[in-house]
Design brief:
Chain lengths: 199, 503
């Protein structure tokens, strides 16, 4: 064959296309990354500051945006003690580190990511399984510190193992879960009925 | 303890060591592999392949343990909990695939560059360092498992972030080893000759190594944490790994089928354009529900819907090339696994990914067994297959480039291994898909994703039977693996004919 191939079938055309498409896509990603990170720093509209754990949090369907949205309400300090933003951050940080050190993500999902052997933790703070807002904190701490004795298996026989979580760590985890439940997750999970919902 | 007792213990131990050494020698004699058939670079490559096979075994073993726990939650409770088994299952997978890829690249490096590997000694040291580090990490996973909620736990035990759980010290080690590997690739091509394949490979490795660093930071803010975490996971698995496989595939099609270089390189560029063009912004499908802005619903949905296109291109490419060469090739098992790769990649990564990638559906399927279904078929189809193809290529040359075509002794073994492994993984995929559908309806749509809803779905007979089927097909996969290893150790042993020459 002596004919030269048309442009669209030539090596140099596709080589250049590959380079430009890759560089262009990556550039857009970098720009969007800057924007996304700034829109989601703790203290932004989408991701509230850590002191949100001093407030009542709920999750309800918002007709105006047609999705479920976190609702931040009146004062409701965690463990009855209002914390400064800095102290709240410290507590949530301890919780987050504990969640990582105990490998929670290889049974549970967080924001829907992880393993599927145990329930999603995105809105765990708001789950009706904690019976009532008054009993919740105490039940959570007891469960985290001795999950075998306080097992919540929902008829499944699956029990969380004892992960030797200390009381400060358990409090940190609860703070982390409460804070996480306030994040605007674009309506995920859908149709979630919270512990605050009236039947 | 008396001196006499101590001497007895030492004698006993040395006796055991001698016995083990004898057994090992016997095993080696039985294997009849002659490393002098391989260049020094390829001797390094088969070391990587050997560890890859061992880790593949670990993946299957710990997968079976975790699958059993879905049916019998008391099994190994507080000894090897689900979290531990599942972590070793997925980590062994990631690492054996990386070992496989590094092995593949070392395999093709000398032939493609036309010269010997520049830093062979360094490459060998890196191999042993990496293997020692992987061993320590796995032992810590199994024996220490968890730590207190402190930085030291993240540095020494477990980072607790799915897929990249390796503690920080190991992260740093991995980066160093990958840099040595990268140096070897670039320096060898620079000394020898560059090609289209070499160029794509080099740029892809830059991205692959660089992206890993994005996963090496601790952040309190979980939205930011998961944002960067996905940079590593997605941009590895759905972008740079796919391109790496494109490179390996391109090279192997030339060698196995005799496809012209010009054709595979044009295809490779097309694949890179399509893969990165869809995959980089396709990252957005992981940013639907983690707190990131709403525009990701549109961007992620649109670009990830395009992600199957390059995979279709790869099927067309592989099949068309195989067809135009009338399937005449120098290694039947390797080509069969390459065809399995083309289809497995398309169905597992492409179709199964597309099925739940649009946000309107993903709202209900996110975080259910749908993802596990997709994960099983995609990782196996896209990555396990191509590595297995190279295992066959390696063993062929290790035995002195023997015949691996029709009329081989014990031909049934590789065919049954291929059949069992594919049937096993496909069976698990379907079982997990059924479980995922059931979860999406009962837990998500009806139950509203509460803990009550979650367990309603987990206790449902449809879910339980799906988990039983998954375990059954896991055992089928394991049987396929045993046969595969047996075949790899024996294939071509009695063969005296030389490999078919492909023009």
């Amino acid at each position: 064959m002596t004919e030269t191939p048309p442009l669209w079938a030539s090596e140099s055309f596709w080589k250049k296309t590959a380079i430009w498409v890759t560089a262009g896509s990556f550039l857009i990603l970098v720009v969007l990354t800057f924007d996304s990170l700034s829109q989601t720093t703790a203290g932004s509209k989408r991701v509230p500051g850590y002191a949100v754990i001093n407030k009542k949090i709920d999750y309800r369907f918002d007709k105006s945006v047609n999705k479920f949205m976190p609702v931040i309400g009146e004062d409701e300090p965690l463990f009855g003690q209002a914390l400064s933003e800095e102290d709240a951050k410290g507590l949530v940080d301890l919780g987050k580190k504990t969640v990582q050190s105990k490998n929670c993500m290889n049974c549970h999902t967080l924001l829907g990511n992880g393993a599927y052997y145990a329930p999603d933790l995105t809105k765990a703070w708001l789950d009706q399984g904690w019976v009532s807002p008054e009993l919740r904190e105490d039940l959570m701490i007891k469960f985290l510190m001795d999950p075998e004795k306080n097992a919540r298996t929902f008829g499944s026989n699956r029990k969380m193992p004892n992960l030797k979580i200390t009381e400060p760590e358990a409090k940190g985890i609860v703070a982390f879960l409460k804070w996480m439940s306030s994040i605007d997750t674009n309506g995920f999970p859908y149709n979630f009925k919270t512990i605050e919902a009236e039947e | 303890m008396s001196t006499g007792g101590l001497t007895a213990v030492i004698q006993n131990a040395s006796g055991c060591l001698d016995k083990a050494r004898n057994q090992w020698q016997k095993f080696n004699t039985w294997l009849e592999l002659d490393s002098s058939h391989l260049s020094p670079g390829r001797q390094l490559s088969v070391k990587y392949f050997t560890v890859a096979v061992i880790l593949f075994f670990a993946q299957i073993l710990f997968g079976l343990l975790a699958a059993t726990q879905f049916l019998a939650p008391g099994f190994l409770y507080e000894i090897l909990d689900f979290s531990v088994n599942r972590m070793v299952h997925i980590n062994a997978m990631v690492v054996w695939m990386l070992y496989g890829f590094i092995g593949c690249v070392y395999w093709l490096l000398e032939e493609e560059s036309g010269t010997e590997i520049v830093g062979l000694k360094l490459g060998n040291i890196a191999f042993w360092v990496l293997t020692a580090a992987v061993t320590v990490v796995v032992l810590v996973y199994l024996l220490v498992q968890i730590g207190p909620g402190k930085d030291s736990s993240l540095w020494l035990i477990n980072e607790g972030r799915e897929y990249i759980e390796a503690p920080r010290w190991a992260d740093i080690g991995i980066v160093v080893v990958i840099l040595i590997f990268f140096y070897n690739v670039v320096a060898t091509f620079s000394k020898g000759k560059w090609s289209g394949i070499a160029g794509v490979l080099t740029l892809d490795l830059v991205a692959l190594a660089g992206l890993y660093v994005a996963g090496m930071f601790y952040m309190t803010n979980i939205t930011h944490d998961q944002y960067w975490w996905w940079w590593v996971i997605h941009l590895w698995v759905e972008a740079t790994w796919e391109v790496l496989v494109g490179v390996i595939m391109a090279w192997s099609l030339m060698k196995l089928l005799g496809v012209k270089r010009k054709i595979v390189e044009i295809w490779l560029y097309i694949e890179v354009a399509l893969m990165f063009g869809s995959g980089i912004l396709g990252l957005g499908h992981h940013y639907f529900w983690i707190g990131t802005p709403e525009y990701w619903l549109t961007i992620g949905g649109f670009f990830s819907a395009l992600e199957p296109i390059p995979l279709v291109a790869m099927v067309v490419h592989a099949l068309y090339d195989a067809g135009t060469h009338s399937f005449k090739n120098s290694n039947h098992p390797a080509v069969a696994w390459i065809i399995a790769q083309a289809f497995g990649n398309f169905f597992g990564a492409g179709v199964w990914g597309f099925m739940h990638t649009l946000p309107q559906i993903n709202l209900y399927t996110h975080g259910t067994q749908w993802s596990a279904s997709h994960g099983h078929l995609a990782f196996f189809g896209a990555y396990a297959t191509i590595n297995i193809a190279f295992f066959y290529l390696a063993i062929q040359h290790w035995r002195g480039n023997v015949w691996m075509g029709g009329g081989m002794a014990n031909n049934w073994r590789w065919k049954w291994a291929l059949g069992l492994l594919n049937a096993g993984v496909l069976g698990m995929t379907i079982a997990l898909l059924i479980a995922g559908y059931e979860q999406s309806f009962i837990e998500r749509a009806v139950g509203g994703s509460t803990w009550g809803g979650y367990f309603d779905a987990q206790n449902h007979p449809a879910f339980v039977s799906a988990m039983a089927w998954r375990l059954f097909f896991g055992l089928v996969t394991a049987a396929g693996f045993v046969l595969l290893v047996w075949d790899l150790m024996t294939i071509g042993k009695t063969e005296t004919r030389k490999a078919q020459v492909i023009e």
